[in-house]
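hey so u asked for the seq, here:
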Amino acid sequence: MSSDTAQPTPQQLADALVGILDVEPVEQNFFRGIATPGGRGRSFGGQVIAQALMAAIKTVPSDRPAHSLHGYFMRPGDATAPVLYQVERDRDGGSFTTRRVVAVQNGKPILNLAASFHVIEPGLSHQDDMPDVPPPEELRTEAELAKDYAGELPEAYIKWLSNTRPVEIRPAILRAPFDRTPRREQSFWFRVPGQIGDNAALHRAALAYASDFGLLITSAFAHGKAFADTDMQFASLDHAVWFHSDLRADDWLLYTMDSPWSGGARGFNRGRIFTRDGVLVANVAQEGLVRQVTPKA
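ran it, structure tokens below
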């Protein structure tokens, strides 16, 4: 979503996200996702992932929530154009349902996604502990932080921060380009700033949308590099999310990420998402292109 003279209210941002996620059925097993409102350039990968998930969700009984998705990005999407999603109903079993989704623009696939759904049942339970970080009320957004670092940030990053988006992010750890100290992990709080209702499937799709923010770049932080650096090229290659329980994307969630490996112009990244009270609601993994390039003159 791009910047505008009159800044939208938090609820307007939340309503815009619902409009993005709620794909429209156009034929049996075919759905249309709208273009990014005010978008330009390449599509945000999280949006394509979330719309593909919503297309799959619309073909599955509501008593079987999504428990995982795995997607491969094949081509960059066009943020100014809608996306067509074709759903294949692979299996409807006694406990699990599986779907495959192909996202298409201009007659060519831009994403393949597989999603699995599971009836709710009891089982053994354990989880990681949530990291000890300051609460979101004690932190500022990156846009607010940028005022303190205005003379030190790349122009492209300042421009990126000026774009309005339907997810509010407050870093718990200063990262590049604010702090160039090499580190292989980061944490931030995020939420949809307005209310998006009580549809549990919509909240999972909103988490899938937000899970693409900042994950890929984690592997570059180990080298003090940032997304806006002119000598770097980044692109998501694949993305996976495991949903562990219901959640509210319009309440604060902690996203903690680390990068255990990078090499060969690729970087691997992992993420864990916790509720405010420490419940681990999702795990995320992604590999992406992390390529050093010669800056354009």
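The mean pLDDT is 94. The chain has one domain: 10-121+135-292.
lmk if thats what u needed
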